[in-house]
From TrEMBL:
This is NAD(P)H-dependent flavin oxidoreductase. GO terms for molecular function: oxidoreductase activity. It comes from the Bacteria. Pfam families: NMO (PF03060). It comes from Herminiimonas aquatilis. CDD domains: NPD_like. Keywords: Flavoprotein, FMN, Oxidoreductase. The keyword Flavoprotein applies. Its EC number is 1.13.12.-.
Length: 389
């Protein structure tokens, strides 16, 4: 059953939605089960497009030992198609099914096109500036387009470029690198906490920018992401001009989250001192739990960076446009991100890379259904209090 709230609905294309977005989480952390169940409640569920074959035994069997990029890419498109269709089936026409595609991924255009063909309601692009998204999706005018950006400068660049093509984003996700999980929209590790990323600064600056560009403020909803974990924050952010909130970590650990239960426990049990930022091989800062693998890697990082040099992709997948390990970029991470994220999805606590935001979780260590999470954030219904009655 769809949930309700007293907050104004989020309007995307012609849909009225709960003002909650479940952020896309790769590899495989947000697939059809999570996205479908969030959408079923009337909110926005997002599938992460990258390397979804990992959820399909038949496709994995064909490619696990293969170094044939063409084959791996082809089965990943099959997996993406299956995941979108399965999510839409769970959603039953409620909410919205979005697909997250990272600009930094080599198969970005193919993932965008497949998502549109398979019936995604929205495409959300982060980890780079999606200047060409309007052209890529020109044949699918009903698909909502949402760039993920972190500061007013990035928003201005996208708006000006897209306006030249007579297109506006259907909403903008503003992700604060100080708190968010995964890849962060800051130039380097030293700028992650820069005050110009604060929600208040970006929301105010964006509304001013809209005025300068002659865009009515209600035309492009602003969705804020990073560190949101209680209804008071949600209320405050709506008061500052946000139209919806996006959460990642809290959805990753929900009952319906598509990862192994060990994955969820690594995230829920992490203490503030266990959460670190470091350079990813994608050349962006990233935030994750300092597990055994990450700790060992960070101990060796300087040495590995000193030896960086171009080489073949270690798994033949060439998943990134630019990879610090393959391309020998010394200032970037020196590990295979797809391999480490694949371990995490399967619950391999020793070898996995576990992305996580910096802030506490709404329900502490508890793994609860997405319905309770959304009801808590929007309607202040606290499941622990309900259970104790
Ligand atoms: C495990 C995990 C994987 C993520 N992967 C992606 C991704 O592939 N693409 C993306 O744009 N954002 C990714 N994110 C970021 C989320 O979509 C979301 O914007 C962010 O986590 C919000 O911050 P929060 O975790 O503090 O709520 C990921 C987050 C997590 C926790």
């Amino acid at each position: 059953m769809v949930l309700n709230t007293a907050f104004p609905k989020l309007k995307l294309k012609n849909k009225l939605l709960l003002p909650i977005v479940q952020g896309g989480m790769g590899v495989g952390i947000s697939a059809h089960r999570l996205a479908g169940n969030v959408a079923k409640l009337g909110a926005v569920g997002t599938i992460s497009s990258v390397d979804l074959r990992r959820h399909h035994a038949d496709l994995m069997e064909q490619t696990e030992k293969s170094r044939d990029k063409t084959l791996i890419d082809a089965v990943n498109l099959i997996a993406l198609d299956r995941e979108i269709k399965a999510a839409k089936k769970i959603a039953g026409g409620n909410g919205m099914i979005a697909v997250n595609v990272m600009r930094a991924v080599a198969e970005y255009s193919a993932y965008v096109k497949q998502s549109c063909e398979s019936g995604a309601d929205a495409i959300v692009v982060g980890a780079g500036l999606p200047m060409d998204l309007p052209e890529l999706t020109a044949d699918y005018p009903d698909v909502a387009l949402l760039p993920i950006l972190s500061d007013v400068r990035g928003i201005a660049l996208i708006l000006k470029k897209w306006m030249r093509r007579n297109r506006l984003p259907d909403a903008i996700v503003i992700e604060n690198p100080q708190y968010a999980a995964g890849h962060l929209g800051a130039a380097g590790l030293d700028s992650v906490n820069d005050p110009h990323f604060a929600f208040s600064v970006v929301l105010e600056g964006t509304l001013k920018l809209f005025q300068e560009l002659g865009i009515a403020s209600e035309k492009i909803p602003l969705i804020v992401a990073g560190g949101i974990h209680n209804p008071q924050q949600v209320n405050e952010l709506f008061g500052m001009g946000a139209s919806a909130v996006q959460l990642g970590t809290a959805f990753a650990v929900s009952e319906e989250g598509d990862a192994h239960v060990n994955f969820k426990q690594v995230l829920t049990r992490a203490q503030p001192e266990d959460i670190v930022t470091f350079m990813s091989c994608a050349g962006l800062p990233a935030r994750a739990v300092k597990t055994q693998w990450l700790s060992n890697y960070l101990d060796k990082e300087v040495k590995l960076q000193g030896k960086a040099g171009p080489k073949d992709c270690t798994v033949g997948f060439d998943c990134l446009h630019q990879c610090g390990l393959r391309d020998g970029i010394a200032k970037a991470g020196q590990f295979c991100i797809d391999t480490q994220l694949g371990f995490a999805l399967k619950g391999d606590v020793e070898r996995g890379l576990f992305f996580r935001g910096s802030e506490p979780l709404p329900f502490g260590n508890a793994i609860r259904p997405v319905r309770e999470l959304i009801d808590y954030l929007l309607n202040r219904v606290n499941p622990t209090l309900v259970a104790a009655r």
